[in-house]
Amino acid sequence: MRSDSDFRAEQAVAEIKRVDREVRRSSRPAAVWWLACGIATALYWSVMHFGVEPLETLAIVGWLVFTAVSAYYICRLGACARSLHRLMRTLTVVFLVATVLNAAVNRYVYDGEGVWPVVVGVAGILLAAVPPLYGGWRGLRELRDPEGEESATS
Amino acid sequence: MTPATGNGHHPRHKLDEIIHAPVRLSIVAALAAAEKAEFRFLRDTIEVSDSLLSKHIATLEEAGYVRVQKGFVGKRARTWLSLTDRGRKAFAEYVSVLQEIVKNPTKGTVDAPH
Fold this sequence. Notes:
The structure holds 2 protein chains of 2 kinds.
Chain A: E1 6-8, H1 9-50, H2 55-75, E2 79-81, H3 82-108, H4 116-142
Helix pairs in contact in A: 1-2, 1-3, 1-4, 3-4
Chain B: H1 22-33, E1 34-38, H2 39-46, H3 50-62, E2 66-73, E3 76-83, H4 85-103, E4 109-111
């Protein structure tokens, strides 16, 4: 960063765009995390709904590891872009609701026999996994380099 | 009312002098793009020393443009910064004045405070 006293408007605009790009770049890992979360969620609930021991224990251990790694990963983020932050708030609420529903399905639905527990289980997995996958994809799209796109100064 | 750089008719006189300093502009621009940003991220992005960044953050905080939140991640102290509503409004005005100046390139040079 310069400290010139002769500071042109074009230079100011260029600096705003540069810093905006840096913030987007720094926020991308959060979008990637949502993609990973979508895949991990699909795997976890697939095993919990339809798997047998020792896969269930393995899934629980895997989920704990994923949570610990996520906490470390997210704490290392330097900045969070505004657009992604708004998206993350919605995703978090949907994700928590889907988790509670899947836990309820896992606890109560599998006492029954037949096709419908499978249908409910698959619906639960989709409900839990699709929002984070969509959020990650949309986040990465919104955080693309704004060169030629709308940015803070246009 | 935001502090401007002068009283003439040229758009540059409407530039907010608190924002219109190279380091402070970079800080405010980063915080405008982010919901919040960590002190070290700003330092590395803007390429300034801790002390210079702290000094400019103090100026922005005093003006009511920046909010500073301190916390701990494990045993490490972390400082998070975000723009206040006032800071966001001031930056939006600053950008619109810049655009006005850029549209008239013959009048584009403006002096920045240190």
